[in-house]
Design goal:
This protein is an alpha/beta fold. The chain has one domain. Helices cover 25% and strands 35% of the residues. The chain has two helices and five strands. It has a five-stranded mixed beta sheet. The chain starts with a strand and ends with a helix. Keywords: ATP-binding, Nucleotide-binding. It comes from Gardnerella vaginalis. This is ATP-binding protein. GO terms for molecular function: ATP binding.
Length: 69
């Protein structure tokens, strides 16, 4: 995983990738987040529009959409 954002009571695990369109890349990027065995939020930020916005509870967002929130 690329980043961990923390506050007093929360964590956010962040993985950043250029694209999630290729299945092998998608699996490679999701693998480290899937290994984390806790209930904190997990997020993949990508330049491409994702095929799905959620993979097993891991949220996927386009970088532009994420920055504009």
């Amino acid at each position: 995983m690329d980043f961990v954002a923390t506050s007093a009571s929360e964590k956010l695990y962040i993985q950043v990738t250029e694209s999630m369109m290729d299945e092998s890349v998608r699996e490679r990027e999701l693998k480290p987040l899937r290994k984390i065995q806790n209930n904190y939020e997990k997020l993949v930020i990508t330049f491409s529009k994702a095929l799905d916005d959620d993979y097993d509870g891991i949220r996927v967002e386009n970088i532009v959409d994420w920055l504009l929130k």
